[in-house]
Write a structure and sequence with these properties.
By secondary structure, the protein is α+β, with helices and mostly antiparallel strands. The chain is 45% helix and 25% strand.
Length: 248
């Protein structure tokens, strides 16, 4: 049986490339600002802010940038107000796609997101049209080279993780949202480097994309991820390995 390349794996590899290009800074600054606005600027009392700051530091963002973003969120410095919006739709081949957005101009953003869906053979739907196909989960990615699988399983299941998935060159630790911080903190205590950590939407089931739609759906999800207002993209598709290799 041929293997499959899940969107989660594709996304992880793309995130690593984006980090090298510095594209992630803009998105992280927005997340830090919003986290501080909603939960306050105390790193220790605001789990969302703590996760955003740790992610920013792991991507070599200067402390000055982080502190400025926090102060803009708390109102100590003048800053832009961002709205959190979830856009849902269908990609080519019927795959469900959700884009989590932070924007200072909802009309501009929805127009641009709709155009991207249409451009690549998909369509933007109404709120709720595909959301029911996903569950909110904590997802922590760890490079396979960083830890032995048996040790990882022993650590995380003991503190509330639901599952550890082997996804090519990474392990994905899946947690209930309420256990995410506890599992992440335990891994940090064990000095295990985290490739990424976030509460996100995970598909309940996946659909396999056929050959004629592979290039379209990869371009659609890539352009959504590249959009300055899009913080994350969740999708429920798999691509057979041999088709991924052709598309690469």
């Amino acid at each position: 049986m041929s293997g499959h390349s899940k969107w989660s794996t594709i996304k992880h590899k793309k995130a690593a490339k984006d980090a090298k290009k510095g594209k992630i800074f803009t998105k992280l600054i927005k997340e830090i600002t919003v986290a501080a606005r909603i939960g306050g600027g105390d790193f220790n009392a605001n789990p969302r802010l703590r996760t955003a700051v740790i992610t920013a530091r792991s991507n070599s963002m200067p402390n000055d940038n982080i502190e400025r973003a926090i102060k803009k969120g708390t109102g100590e410095l003048e800053g832009v107000s961002y709205d959190e919006i979830q856009y849902e739709g269908y990609g080519p081949g019927g795959a469900a796609i959700i884009a989590q957005v932070l924007t200072d101009n909802k009309n501009r953003t929805v127009s641009e997101i709709r155009r991207l869906f249409s451009k690549h053979g998909g369509n933007l739907g109404e709120t709720g049209c595909v959301g029911w196909m996903f569950d909110k989960k904590g997802v922590i990615s760890i490079e396979r080279s960083a830890i032995d699988e048996d040790r990882l399983v022993g650590i995380v299941l003991d503190v509330g993780a639901e599952d550890v998935k082997d996804e090519d060159d990474i392990f994905e630790v899946v947690t209930p949202p309420e256990e995410f911080e506890k599992v992440k903190e335990r891994l940090e205590q064990e000095k295990i480097p985290l490739a990424s950590a976030q509460v996100t939407l995970v598909p309940k089931n996946t659909v396999t994309v056929d050959e004629k739609h592979v290039e379209q759906i990869l371009k659609l999800t890539e352009e959504l991820e590249d959009h300055d207002d899009v913080q994350s993209v969740s999708a429920n598709f798999n691509i057979p390995t041999e088709l991924m290799e052709k598309a690469s």
